[in-house]
Amino acid sequence: MKNNKTFFILLLYIICMIPFFYFSQKTHKNRIIKKFNIVIDPLSENHFINEEIVKKILFSKTKEIDKKIGQLCILRMEKKLNNYPFIKKSEVFLSVDGTLNIIILQKEPILRIKNGNKEYYLTKDAENLELSSFFSPKVILAKGSFSKEEKKHLTNLIKFINSDELLKNQIISIKKNNENSFILIPKIGNHHIILGNIKDFKNKLNKLRAFYKQYLNKIDIDQYKKIDLQYKDQVVAKKR
After folding, report:
1. Domain 109-239, architecture per CATH
2. At how many degrees (to 10) do helices 51-58 and 74-82 cross?
3. Considering the entire predicted model, what is its pTM?
4. Model confidence pLDDT, tens digit, residues 130-152
5. Which residue from 89, 144, 171, 191 has the least number of CB within 10 angstroms?
6. Do the Cβ atoms of 239 and 212 come closer than 8 Å?
7. Distance (Å, rounded) from C-alpha 109 to C-alpha 128?
């Protein structure tokens, strides 16, 4: 008897709450989106995305920004964002207070490649990325035609250069000399650096860094026409 009474009270409570839930849901769906929380990662100096661009991708017309919550399709919004060439991944969700949260993971260019009349960026993931009319990042320029494998080696090379302050400030360009030989162009000095095969670049760049640390501010670097890193455990600098 007691169990029946408890069940009856619970049932009555649920029945009474149904109109409340219905009204709350309807009110929530009719609310207008007026607050945005847009997070772009990474927000570094080399970026192609900002808040205004995100809003333009999602809402082509100004009036669309004032859409009701019930008219939004989260999956469609994420698809729109993910189809944008400079966005790697996105996540869209609504907060309880009606805030539209948009999380953007953007693609990161680390190298600009010029092959004849064709130019494009290479991302940290060795992915080709078209040029942007919105932004031109300051990255190293590489000239030549590169295979898929060479692009992977190039991204690792650039990551290594960018991790070292001296090399990052000194190396401004890369040129493919022939099938298996690469040349680095420095910012200071009228010489070129023969890297040779790109696969074993770490030891070679460590030698170059040691050479620059010891001699860059002590000698007239312009009297040298090339610095060769291809020899084991040594740097060969040839004068003009």
Report:
1. 3-Layer(aba) Sandwich (3.40)
2. 120
3. 0.75
4. 998 878 888 999 999 999 999 99
5. 89
6. no
7. 9
